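explain this:

___
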Amino acid sequence: GTGPRGRIIRVDVEKAISESDESGDDDQADRPASDQESSEDATVSLNANQRVTAKRLSDNAGVPTFRLTSKVDADALMAFRTEINERLATTGDKVSLTDLPTRACAVMLREHPEVNSSWNEDSIIRRGAVNVGIAVALDSGLIVPVIRDADRKSVSQIGRESRDLAERAKSGKLHPDEFSGGSFSISNLGMYGIDDFTAIINAPEAAILAVGAAVDEPVVRDGELTTRTVITMTMTVDHRVLNGAEAAVFLGELKALLEEPLRIVV
């Protein structure tokens, strides 16, 4: 797409139709039968990672959950990220729009141990360490590498570690202890142009945060119509571990932290 943020607009569709008409059907007719699309059903076997993911999702089917959504005024956050990356330019490091919420969540989890918890059938475990999992999409399914002791690491450290984990996850080189033991998870689909969505809890964790794209929306400031950048966050919560008020306080304070991003690094 040639529209804002790579969106597909009318001219892209018209161009695609025009190019298709020009090429005609001769190319398809000349292709060997084996290369043409088949009308037969195909069975795709699940790999080990997909089987584990499917089992975890099935285990969550009976979990009582609720969702809370909040919009972050992200103008300051975007400017802060730009400034950090300019300062890091000579080092080769770079901070993504996932790294900042990861660090912010780690700070909030340290202050809210009730959220940094796990369900244990007949008890609730308050986790001693803040280990934040970051969902990574693979061709073979989904995996959640874990940033351990994220509350003790800087934004740049989190950025380096998350990139390393994601790269090794995609090449199948993660060790089992690098995608287990999380106490909270984050899923960011903003890079795919998704404005907001609901993520499924990575059991036995108490909650997961879904982060959408940074988009512009109209707003009135000082009597004038202007725009602001917003990021929609949706938190899915295990109601057995947290009640609505506890989750709302956590999400509200997380929103406030992201809107004053200098506090993230303090």
